[in-house]
């Protein structure tokens, strides 16, 4: 969340509190026909506090402390209100939920639990103290009922009901704010990806033609000068050829990535597509020859509606990654399975696996751990799978291997 976003939220929170307190306490005066000065004092105090908070907010400093201060002061004010309105039977007892919700929204989702626990504690103490007559009667102004008349079972019941409400509100706040935060993060990443896609495609288009010219000239030059140059110069020349190859690869992947837009769906056999990709990849001279392939296919061909060309890119990227994770050989396991209206394609390897950090940023463009990688393969996979309304799941253990599972719909809607 940006600083501006945080400041805006706090500003709304401060104004909202002022409105709620003023409205609620005026209404209380009207409904109960009391003329209790304490309500006016609280309104005046909240006005003063709001000015103080707004002043603090303008400085833009220690905003977390400001938020906690507001929540704690609110809880104390709520406690005073509950106390003055005969604690155990107070119609204000549930006002604590406002602080529980605010903490979850303004701080972190779990803060609502901490605040719920604190409020439960305060309410229990007040209710018990009033019940045992430990608070002077003069302080209990608005309460219509003499608490001492209630028995301990009633006290227990009243506390139990309030604590249950606080906990339920905390659970709901924690769940909802957690879900909203995750959604916000998803939207942020998607915006970033869309922006990156635009930039990438315009850069790639600008540079592609001169790059192709440079790269083919370098290849011709290298070929012609092969016998004339020796030693370090030859090494340098090879490096130039290799790097220009790599640049070409990066650019064609960048263009591929930005080109993915619509699908040309056609009935395709998943097994046939996988076999075609396996044939091509297993004959790539840059990949290990020591990989054994284990296939686990159902007896009949599974036909699904996909864009065959783009899905070839998906399988090719995943199988290549598996090969690249096993430079000294290993087992590549391909399994296809039907599961109601889904088709599961699992591509597993016994390669070097990856750590948690790599796993977390797996689908971000340009994230690669390979010296000659582009980091665009899985970004492309994710984009194509999402267009097919499919899902992708990756699990990996460092040193043991990786398993990628694709869930594809059998028929598109
Ligand atoms: P690239 O292959 O060009 O690095 P990718 O987007 O295909 O880009 O993959 C991103 C990163 O994810 C790789 O650099 C690698 O660290 C990790 N990765 C992907 N697949 C595997 C795998 N099967 N085993 C281990 N690491 C993998
Ligand atoms: Mg790759």
TrEMBL record:
Q: What is its EC number?
A: 2.7.13.3
Reactions this protein catalyses: ATP + protein L-histidine = ADP + protein N-phospho-L-histidine
Q: Which GO terms describe its molecular function?
A: ATP binding; phosphorelay sensor kinase activity
Write down the top EC class of this protein. transferase
Which Pfam families does the record associate with it? HATPase_c (PF02518), HisKA (PF00512)
- The residues covered by the Histidine kinase domain are 202-412
Keyword terms of this UniProt record: ATP-binding, Kinase, Membrane, Nucleotide-binding, Phosphoprotein, Transferase, Transmembrane, Transmembrane helix, Two-component regulatory system
> Where are the membrane-spanning stretches?
12-32, 38-56, 63-84, 90-108, 115-134, 154-176
Designated name of the protein: histidine kinase
Give the species this sequence originates from. Answer: Candidatus Abzuiibacterium crystallinum
Upper taxonomic classification of the species? Bacteria, Pseudomonadati, Candidatus Omnitrophota, Candidatus Abzuiibacterium
């Amino acid at each position: 969340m940006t600083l501006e976003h945080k400041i805006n939220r706090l500003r709304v929170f401060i104004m909202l509190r002022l409105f709620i307190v003023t409205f609620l306490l005026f209404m209380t005066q009207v409904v109960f026909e009391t003329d209790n000065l304490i309500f006016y004092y609280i309104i005046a105090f909240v006005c003063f506090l709001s000015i103080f908070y707004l002043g603090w907010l303008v400085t833009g400093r220690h905003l977390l402390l400001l938020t906690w201060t507001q929540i704690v002061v609110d809880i104390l004010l709520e406690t005073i209100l509950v106390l003055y309105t005969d604690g155990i039977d107070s119609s204000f007892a549930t006002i604590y939920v406002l602080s529980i919700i605010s903490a979850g929204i303004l701080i972190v989702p779990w803060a609502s639990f901490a605040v719920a626990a604190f409020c439960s504690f305060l309410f229990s103490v007040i209710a018990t103290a009033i019940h045992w007559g430990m608070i002077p009667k003069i302080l209990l102004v608005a309460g219509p009922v003499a608490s001492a008349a209630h028995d301990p079972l009633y006290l227990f019941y009243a506390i139990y009901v309030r604590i249950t409400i606080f906990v339920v509100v905390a659970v709901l706040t924690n769940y909802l704010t957690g879900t909203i935060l995750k959604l916000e993060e998803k939207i942020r990443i998607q915006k970033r990806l869309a922006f990156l896609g635009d930039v990438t495609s315009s850069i790639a288009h600008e540079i592609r033609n001169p790059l192709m010219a440079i790269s083919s000239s370098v290849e011709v030059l290298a070929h012609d000068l092969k016998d004339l140059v020796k030693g370090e110069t030859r090494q340098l020349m090879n490096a130039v050829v290799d790097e220009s190859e790599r640049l070409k690869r990066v650019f064609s992947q960048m263009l591929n990535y930005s080109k993915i837009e619509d699908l040309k769906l056609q009935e395709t056999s998943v097994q046939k597509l996988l076999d075609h990709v396996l044939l091509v990849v297993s004959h790539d001279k840059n990949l290990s020859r020591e990989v054994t392939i284990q296939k686990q296919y159902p007896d009949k061909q599974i036909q699904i509606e996909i864009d065959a060309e783009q899905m070839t890119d998906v399988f090719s990227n995943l199988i290549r990654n598996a090969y690249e994770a096993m430079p000294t050989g290993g087992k590549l396991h391909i399994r296809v399975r039907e599961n109601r209206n889904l088709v599961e394609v699992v591509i597993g390897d016994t390669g070097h696996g990856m750590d948690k950090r790599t796993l977390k940023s797996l689908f971000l463009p340009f994230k690669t751990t390979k010296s000659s990688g582009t980091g665009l393969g899985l970004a492309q996979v994710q984009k194509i799978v999402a267009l097919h309304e499919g899902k992708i799941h990756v699990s990996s253990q460092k040193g043991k291997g990786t398993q990628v599972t694709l869930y594809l719909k059998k028929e598109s809607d």
